[in-house]
Model the fold of this input.
Amino acid sequence: MSNQLQKQHDLILALGGRLSQKGLIMATAESCTGGGIGAEITAVAGSSGWFSGGIISYSNSAKINLLKVSSGLLEAHGAVSEAVVEAMALGGCRALNADVCVAVSGVAGPGGGTTEKPVGSVWVAWAQSNGAVASELFQFVGNRQSVRQQTIAAALEGMNRAHLPCL
Done:
């Protein structure tokens, strides 16, 4: 196992231990990673004890229909925005009956970037079912796969940095 994979595995084990100890259930709401966070979590044995599942909401209609993100929010801010990723995280808590949820939305590339939102721009949000939410904008560098991998790592590291009061 490479150092990066081992580090990610260790992050997930630490996160799972903390969630299990507190009796909390986690979910994911993913756009640019296409389920990659959930895939990494479920690759770890025992994750079924604390991971509910994930929603891949790649399109705006999926964000609206599955996570209940308002169309007005998407029109006003765009899918790659603080407001939308926070709504995704809160929607993931509700949709999957989870205590905490991490959500991601970004421009993985190689196309799709703009001056305001260049390739590598990724918003990550961490939410609790009680409405507490934190978010952060990242600017990753590299090809599509690299941006997606960096996003997965940032999402997991953020959960481990206890962005949420319950953690």
The domain at 3-160 is CATH 3.90.950.20 (Maf protein). The CA atoms of residues 73 and 164 lie 23 Å apart.
